[in-house]
Amino acid sequence: MLKEFCICMVILILIFLGNGVTQGYSKNSIEDINEKLVNLREEMNRKEIDEEAIAKNEESIDKQWEEMFSRLAYYIEHEELEKFSRNLENAKTYIQLKEYDNAIKEINEGIYILNHIEDKYSFNLQNIF
């Protein structure tokens, strides 16, 4: 009886540790990319638009998302991640076409999706019940 109890406790501890690690990575990654998206949006809202800086910022966000996607895909639904990927690609296309108003709309929607992913996969009582 004691042996089974110890095994169950070890499994529970591993589950909570694994959840803590994945939640920490998700939260930090999403906050980081959200911050970069907000900076990109502010860059596009300026009166004097620096097209080169916007392109560099978008490229760095795209590279960071590619790295994050491969890690987040282990424990988050692909459909949720692909929604954001689609928004990021649409924003990239609008930036290349210099249609910054449409790019800002896509960025805003992408920020909303990332916040939704963070809320949906956070470990709290609302998500458990």
What report would you give on this structure?
The protein is mostly helical and 129 residues long. Helices cover 85% and strands 0% of the residues. The radius of gyration is 19 Å and the shape is elongated.
How do the helices and strands line up, and which of them pair or pack?
Layout: H1 2-45, H2 51-72, H3 78-96, H4 100-120, H5 125-128
Helix pairs in contact: 1-2, 1-4, 2-3, 3-4
Helix content range of the residues, please?
over 70%
Termini Cα gap: 30 Å
Task: Report the sheet with the most strands, covering strand number, pairing sense and barrel closure.
Answer: none
How many extended strands?
0
**Helical run tally:** 5
Radius of gyration from the CA trace? 19 Å
Structural class: mainly alpha
Strand content: under 5%
- Based on CA inertia axes, which overall geometry fits? elongated
Helix-strand topology string: HHHHH
Ranges where pLDDT stays below 50 over 5 or more residues in a row are: none
Average pLDDT metric: 89
User: Which oligomeric form is depicted?
Assistant: single chain
Key traits:
single chain; 129 residues; mainly alpha; 5 helices
Short overview:
It is elongated and about 70 Å long.
